Amino acid sequence: MELGYIISGLVVGFMVGLTGVGGGSLMTPILIFGFGLSPIRAVGTDLLFAALTKIGGVWSHWHHHTIQWHVVGFLALGSIPSTIITLQVLKNFQHHDQQLTNLINLILGFALILTALALPLKDWLKKAIKANHTSKLVQVVHRLQQNKNFIVITTITIGWILGFIVTMSSIGAGALGSVALLYLYPNLYMNQLAATDIAHAVPLTIIAGIGHWHLGTVDVHVLGNLLLGSLPGVYLGSRFSINLPDRVIQITLSTLLMLIGIKFIL
User: Fold this and answer.
1) Which domain holds residue 204?
2) What distance in Å separates the CA atoms of residue 171 and residue 190, rounded to the nearest whole number?
3) pLDDT tens, 205-263?
4) SS3 label, residue 189
5) 94, CA 20 to 30 Å: which among 43, 130, 223, 241?
6) How many domains does the chain have?
């Protein structure tokens, strides 16, 4: 059983380092369906697993100067207060958390499928802005992307939403965050988006994970075995992301989101 946890941690850690996605989106279903943990214990354990795993990814991406720290700050302005409030709600309704988690997982399944379908539109949107300045839709999108106030407010709002979803389900810090950043900051490279998303996910998942620890929903034994595999996995994944073309990372991310979304719905 311990070897299974270690291998699972290695695979998920690699995907986190490569795309910024995969912590909760992959590990929570693995813990529930593969190892039989209850949903609430899977969520709590995975939050601390994601936090400690992504610390290694932050170090590697920081070394390559791919983290956009101002974006991380805007996201944290929304996500940290949201996480604290959500933890208090969980504490007050702790005996009903399974129903809430199931509902969020279902909604997130549809959201992941939609984001997977939306990812390939990135290149089309860039080309449309350059080739068709008369299109009202393209002009609106372009103006919004150039409006600094809109970008800041939207980034903070996205952080708030992520704080709620991640605390309740341990899912979304990488998947939804990376897609939102993709459209808000179209001039960033995919490896910069992944690095920035990972850097924001660390304080978010640490706070949420500590909150779940106090609720008694973290399995320390499972967490330790997962980390044995994930720490080298996330380092290897982040190294590969530096060398892979943007299109390869984009296709990988889109496919991953689609598969995860279908899994949650089914």
Assistant:
1) 2-265
2) 20
3) 999 999 999 988 899 999 999 888 887 887 787 777 666 666 676 677 677 778 777 87
4) coil
5) 223
6) 1
Q: Any idea how long the chain is?
A: 266
Take residue 193 and report the two structure tokens written for it: 């988006």
Per the CB < 8 A criterion, the answer to whether 200 and 36 are in contact is: no
Of residues 133, 117, 132, 211, the one with CA closest to residue 166: 211
- 170-to-42, 156, 251, 261 alpha-carbon distances in Å: 9, 19, 24, 14
Using a 10 angstrom Cβ sphere, with 0-12 exposed, 13-18 middle and 19 or more buried, the burial of residue 140 is: exposed
At 92, list the tokens: 């007050």
Residue 12's nearest CA partner among 3, 23, 4 is: 23
Exposed/middle/buried for residue 266 (C-beta within 10 Å: 0-12, 13-18, 19+): exposed
